[in-house]
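step: validate -> pass
step: tokenize input -> pass
step: predict -> running
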Amino acid sequence: MTFNHFLQMIIAALFFMVFTFCTWYEGSEIVERPWEWKYSTLFTHVNDEQAIDAVDISNFDHFVYAAKFKPLFPLLMVLAASYIIILSGYILFKRRIKKMALFLLGFGVLFLFSSGFVSHSPTVGGNIFQAFFLIGGMIAIMAAALYYYRIPRGFNTFMK
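step: predict -> pass
step: emit ->
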């Protein structure tokens, strides 16, 4: 791993941590909205528990609430995480074209499935995430195809 890749990884990780903190902070608003607990406390309801008090709400539900109603920082958080994952894949599979193309294809399919998972959300954040995952998945699949069927090497010298 070169210094350039290491620096990119550190910067992306710092952005991810800042966006995670901002998302968690914005999502903590769910504690003050008990009428939303039935719809936005997915992680609290995993163990068939009902949120009776604000202290019963899982910290992960703060992220769900923020993604549904204040999607800016959750979207930036997913973008930073995606960048870290794609950069890691590039570092691992830089010289293996088929494996890198398969990695990008898997990432694109994961994004398309994520788009289908949030497609029935009535909130603004759900619609934004659906569009982001759909567009990101298509871009990743196109990048996989372009990476697999590389542009001829002579074309790269033409572009300089």
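step: describe -> Helices lie at 3-27, 37-40, 60-69, 72-93, 97-117, 124-148, 153-159.
step: cleanup -> pass
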